[in-house]
Amino acid sequence: MCEEHITSGDMERPGTDLLHREPPGAVRAAPRRPYRPAQVREAVRRAVDERCRSTHTPCDATALADALLVASELTTNAILHGGGVIDVRVDVAGPGIEVSVSDRSTELPVARRKAGPRERLTPGGHGWPIVCLLSRDIRVRDLPAGGKCITALVPLT
């Protein structure tokens, strides 16, 4: 796991307010089930576009691209390694966008060890390091019914 990020046993349910305090003008979006990476990316795009329209500010294309990549990686990892996505939440508030993806697994995400010469051509293993690199804050918490929720805050500026 990314060493600078927090892991907690907070027992919040998926879909509850993750920030506990929302500034005026906060934008929420969530795709419909089943959750696929493309649907989650679209929810992120809609939320950021709405925020830019409501605040009359231009959207930073690089920041949006980072948020879309993080959303895609979290969703893909939940599908491939977490037993499937059970909930998704997208919150735009303050200086960034929070993408929360809940899955059925209690196992914490880990970065793969450095690949040997033969393993370098093996696909995969890049998603979690990408999430860690592009996110300002990552929280992993246990869910009451089992599984976990990973929330990544991606700066929008």
List the helices and strands and how they pair.
Elements lengths: L5 E3 L18 E3 L7 H19 L5 H21 L3 E9 L2 E8 L23 H8 L2 E6 L5 E8 L2
Parallel strand pairs: 1-5
Antiparallel strand pairs: 2-3, 3-4, 4-6, 5-6
Would you write up a description of this structure?
- The protein has 157 residues and is an alpha+beta fold.
- Helix content is 31%, strand content 24%.
- It has a six-stranded mixed sheet with strand order 1-5-6-4-3-2, covered by helices on one side.
- Strand 5 and strand 6 form a beta hairpin.
- The protein is globular.
- It starts with 5 loop residues before the first strand and ends with a strand.
- 34% of the residues are buried.
- The N terminus is likely disordered.
Short structural description:
The radius of gyration is 15 Å and the shape is globular.
Question: What's the count of strands?
Answer: 6
Query: N-to-C SSE series?
Result: EEHHEEHEE
The amount of helix comes to 25-40%
What low-confidence regions span 5 or more consecutive residues with pLDDT below 50? Answer: 2-25
Q: How much of the polypeptide forms β-strand, as a percent range?
A: 15-25%
Distance between the termini: 25 Å
**Mean pLDDT score, rounded?**
81
Secondary structure category = alpha+beta
